[in-house]
From TrEMBL:
This is Lipoyl synthase. Residues 58-274 form the Radical SAM core domain. The keyword 4Fe-4S applies. [4Fe-4S] cluster 1 binds at C46, C51, C57, S285. Belongs to the radical SAM superfamily. Lipoyl synthase family. One of its GO terms (biological process) is protein lipoylation. It is found in: Cytoplasm. Keywords: 4Fe-4S, Cytoplasm, Iron, Iron-sulfur, Metal-binding, S-adenosyl-L-methionine, Transferase. [4Fe-4S] cluster 2 binds at C72, C76, C79. Its cofactor is [4Fe-4S] cluster. It comes from the Bacteria. One of its GO terms (cellular component) is cytoplasm. Binds 2 [4Fe-4S] clusters per subunit. One cluster is coordinated with 3 cysteines and an exchangeable S-adenosyl-L-methionine.
Length: 314
């Protein structure tokens, strides 16, 4: 299996600005969450991707469960998850995810996965089983999924969408120009088409996508990605700072300032997204539960305005 090609050997880490520094996780709740995940044999993207928000999220007992193992068949230049040949799919994993959800008392859960290009369906069936198990055991919990692109897996996207998660997230990650070096195993327009397909299958599902900044993209390119997302009817956009996991990964081109993130958020809202989260520490599932409530309220408000406008114009 192809491994990440070193991009900048022996490159020293850049000193992070003050707005990116977070406290080390030491809370009792953090330890309890970690113990629960190990007891049930579950992986989390919080750990595998070295998320800077892990201390805050786990203190609140919010964790993003990563199904289908801890080994990815892709080798993206930004990602800290290990690459290689994954093991067999754990048939008990959906039950264990549901048990963790119940024990943590989650009102909203986020499920993601590694890429599984080795599987005929890319892991779509496991996503469906997890959703079904959660619906059965925790019917009051809303479900958000963050999927791989299911490239070359005919019918996989439709199959997962038909399981009706509340939020279907798939990240574009970066601008099209940087795909060959940052996300070489993926295709920009395929990822856009994925989210467009979800809306076609079930327009009631909220769609969500995110990009990292600080990889060398231009502001105009980010604006174009926003336009492309809106053309695909994506509801929720997240924008966060790229952080270099190791010297072997893509180098940080620049640290984007909080003011720049505020400008990105203002631009995205003007383009019509229902929800926008843009900050240095924003990640796909950061504050996902609270954001879902705001997302649902924003849709209800928009529908109410549209209804009022139609009545006025009659």
């Amino acid at each position: 299996m192809t491994e990440i090609t070193p991009i900048r050997d022996n490159t020293p880490y850049q000193r992070k600005p003050d707005w990116l520094r977070v406290k080390a996780p030491v809370s009792k709740e953090f330890a309890e969450t970690k113990k629960l995940m190990r007891r049930l044999g579950l992986n989390t993207v919080c750990e595998e991707a070295a998320c800077p928000n892990i201390g805050e999220c786990w203190q609140k007992k919010h964790a993003t469960v990563m199904i289908l193992g801890d080994t990815c068949t892709r080798a993206c230049a930004f990602c800290n998850i290990k690459t290689g040949m994954p093991g067999k799919v754990d048939v008990l994993e959906p039950v264990h995810v549901a048990e963790a959800c119940g024990e943590m008392g989650l009102e909203h859960i986020v499920i993601t996965s590694v890429d599984r290009d080795d599987l005929d369906d890319g892991g779509a069936h496991q996503f469906v089983r997890v959703i079904e198990e959660l619906r059965s055991r925790s019917p009051g919990t809303t479900i958000e999924i963050l999927t791989p692109d299911f490239r070359h897996k005919a019918g996989a996207i439709e199959r997962v969408a038909e399981a009706r998660p509340d939020v279907f997230n798939h990240n574009l990650e970066t601008v099209p120009r940087l795909y060959p070096t940052i996300r070489p195993g993926a295709r920009y327009y395929h990822s856009l088409k994925l989210l467009e397909t979800v809306k076609r299958v079930d327009p009631s599902i909220f769609t969500k996508s995110g990009v990292m900044v600080g990889l060398g993209e231009e502001r105009l390119e980010v604006s174009q990605v926003m336009d492309d997302m809106r053309s695909a009817d994506i509801d929720f956009l997240t924008i966060g700072q790229y952080l270099q996991p190791t010297p072997r990964h893509a180098k940080v081109d620049r640290f984007v300032t909080p003011d720049d993130f505020a400008n990105f958020e203002q631009l995205a809202r003007a383009k019509g997204f229902l929800m926008v989260s843009a900050s240095p520490l924003t990640r796909s599932s950061y504050h996902a539960g609270d954001d879902f409530l705001r997302l649902r309220a924003a849709r209800e408000e928009r529908l109410q305005r549209q209804s009022q406008n139609q009545t006025t114009n009659q």
